[in-house]
Structure formats: C-alpha cells, structure tokens
Amino acid sequence: MTLIMVGLAILVLLIILRYFPIGLWFQAMVTGVRINLLQLFFMRIRKVPPRTIVTAMIEAKKAGIDLDRDALEAHYLAGGHVSSVTHALVSASKANIDLPFQMATAIDLAGRDVFEAVQMSVNPKVIDTPPVTAVAKDGIQLIAKARVTVRANIERLVGGAGEDTVLARVGEGIVSSIGSANSHKEVLENPDNISRTVLTKGLDQGTAFEILSIDIADIDIGKNIGAELQTDQAEADLKVAQAKAEERRAFAVAHEQEMRAKTQDMKAKLIEAEAEVPQAMAEAFRTGNLGIMDYYKMKNVDADTKMRDSISRSTDDKDKK
Fold first, then answer.
1. Residue 187 neighbours by CB distance under 10 Å
2. Cα 81 to chain centroid, rounded
C-alpha cells in the first residue's frame, strides 16, 4: 500500500513538473509579477508559451510598466510578436515617448517592426536617394544625390506610406527644383536651395516618417541635352530640306523629259509638213497654178539662200578662230 501511494505521489509530481512550470512561476513571484500556477497551466492548454508571456511581464514590470496577461495572450494568439511589443514599450517609456499598449500592438499586427520604429524615433535614420537626373532651363543635365534624415512618426505608422514613397517624393522635388532653375550654374553654386525648396513642399504628409532634413550629397554635370535636341532638330530639318530638294529635282527632270518629247513631236510634224511640199508643188503643176519659170525662180532663191548660209557660217568659223 505504501509503495502504491509513493508511486502515485511520484506520478503526480511528474505530471506537475511536466505541465506546471514551477520554475517560471517562482521567477515571476520573486520579481513581483502576480500570476498563479494554474494560469500557467491553462496557457499551455491554449497553446500559448508561458515563458514568452511571463518574460514580457517581468521585463515590463522592471521598467515600471504594468501589462495585462490576457492582453498579451490575445496579442500572441492574433499572430503578434509579444517580445517586440514589450521591448518597444520599454524603450518608449525610457525615451518619454507616448506609446500606448493598444497602439503598439496595432503597429505590430500591421506588419511593422514597432521596436525599430521606436528606435528610429529616438535615433533618426539617414536614407540615401538613388541618383536623380534633371535638366535645367539652359539644357544642361544634372545628376544629384541626396541624404534624407527621417524620424519615425508613431501616430502614422499604421496606414502610413514607407521609405519608397519618401524617396519618390524627394526625387520628384529635386527634379522640379533643378528644372525651375534658369541655369545649371545656379544649382551648382547654391545646392542648398534644392533642400529648402523640397522641404517646403511637405513631402512627409501621409507617410510613416517625419523628414528632418534633406542634404544634397553630390551633384554631377551630365549631358548637354539642349545641344543634343538642337542637333537632332537640325538633322531632321536637313533631311526635310533634302527630301524637298530631291522632289524639286525629280520634277525638273520630268519637266525636261516632257519638253524633249514635245520637241521631238514638233520636229516630226515639221518633217511631215516638209514632206507635203513636193506633193503640193506637183499638184500645182497639174492644175496650172505653177509654171516652169516659177519653179526655176524658186530653185534659184533656194540656191541663193543656201550660198548665203554657207558664207555666213564660214565667216563665223573664222571669227571664232
């Protein structure tokens, strides 16, 4: 009987040690965290790790923050990070940042690292922008790089835009500022004008950050876009002029060919008309309208005309020599 009692006692002790975290309960008790052993047992039944909850409550208690056990369990069951929320609450308390438990859990469940956000509120973060290319009014391209110092805005972490939005807005502001400059020399002489112009636009609205400063880290001169555009325009104008000239040349060639064709046509008509002369003379002989003496007179006139032509040609050739 005694052995059975001893065996049952050992069995009960093993069950208690297996399902009741006595060591964790004792650690909580000595640190001033009020939690009974039965609650730790029920945590295991609810699939909540007791050590995570108790460790968070001990950390908060030492920092002077009272956390509700049920709230921590609910946050864990909702998929939150209990340790990250606890670290954030402790850091915010030490830095005198107003961060309620409900806001911290909401930020954590929204997918943001609430502890990193609190650290960024205390120690601002510097974000380097990629090279931003813009063109001044004189056509000179400038390539600028900026460093944006931001601080996390706890109140806008839930639903606020991230770093990519801040960088995009800063890049847009830099392009607008450089594009409004009359000369690239103005930008090179006073790069701080870009920072002041961009800061006045309130680029951090609707984001999870507060922009503290925008510093131009580097500005390089790129291409002469204005000259390239003028060159391209000149080449385009040249091609248009060449096309028009080619069109006029083709029209002139076609007109010349047309005139040659007309000349050949007129020559053919002349030859045709000359061929009708002998027939007309023969018809005149038959009808009696032309006598033999008239014919010889015409032949003499023709011969005299040919002689005068030959004499004038020989005289012209001698003058040319």
1. 24
2. 37
Task: State the Cα–Cα distance between residues 14 and 37, nearest whole angstrom.
Answer: 15
The number of CA neighbours under 13 Å toward the Cβ of 118 is 24
Question: What is residue 227's three-state secondary structure?
Answer: helix
pLDDT truncated to tens, each residue of the chain (321 aa)?
676 666 666 655 555 555 556 667 777 777 777 777 777 777 777 788 888 888 888 888 888 888 888 888 888 888 888 888 988 888 888 888 888 888 888 888 888 888 888 888 878 888 888 888 888 888 888 888 888 888 888 877 777 788 888 888 888 888 888 888 888 888 888 888 888 888 788 777 888 888 888 888 888 888 877 777 778 888 888 898 888 888 888 888 888 888 888 888 888 887 877 777 777 777 777 777 767 777 777 777 777 777 877 777 666 555 555
Per the CB < 8 A criterion, the answer to whether 82 and 67 are in contact is: no
| 207 DSSP β-pair partners | 161
Which residues in the chain belong to E strands, given as ranges? Answer: 125-128, 132-135, 140-152, 209-224
Angle between helices 163-179 and 192-199 (to 10 degrees): 120
